[in-house]
Amino acid sequence: MVAELLDVGERSALPSSYLCKILGISRRQLAREVERERRSGAFICANGDGFFIAESVPEFRAYLRTLESRARELDTTRSALIAAAGRMGVAGF
Fold first, then answer.
1. Sign of the C-alpha dihedral, residues 85, 68, 29, 24?
2. pLDDT tens-place string over residues 10-61
3. 39-47 long-range contacts, Cβ below 8 Å, gap at least 24?
4. Do 6 and 40 meet the contact criterion of CB atoms below 8 Å apart?
């Protein structure tokens, strides 16, 4: 559904607002659909401008690095919250 609408290459990224309008769905629904398609094997990438299909292996690797960075940031935040909960006497994490 989403991948079929996307152009190839980062320079051709389509904004989520445009995709939502065309598909008649909310941003939340778009995010769910993009994740579903990615998990089914679509090479959907994203940048600050929107969504696109990776044009090359280096472009795809660059996107994977952004995902890895986000995962590290989320893990750091999660660890900080668990530590704070422990300091407040909340156990079980």
1. positive
2. 999 999 999 999 999 999 999 999 999 999 999 999 999 999 999 999 999 9
3. 42/2, 42/3, 43/3, 44/2, 44/3, 44/6, 45/10, 46/13, 47/10, 47/13
4. no
User: What's the DSSP call for residue 71?
Assistant: H
**What is the chain's Cα-based Rg?**
17
Only one residue has tokens 């445009």, namely: 18
- Write the DSSP string, 18-60: HHHHHHT--HHHHHHHHHHHHHTT--EEEETTEEEE--SHHHH
Q: Taking the model in full, what pTM does it have?
A: 0.84
Question: Do the beta carbons of residue 50 and residue 18 sit within 8 Å?
Answer: yes
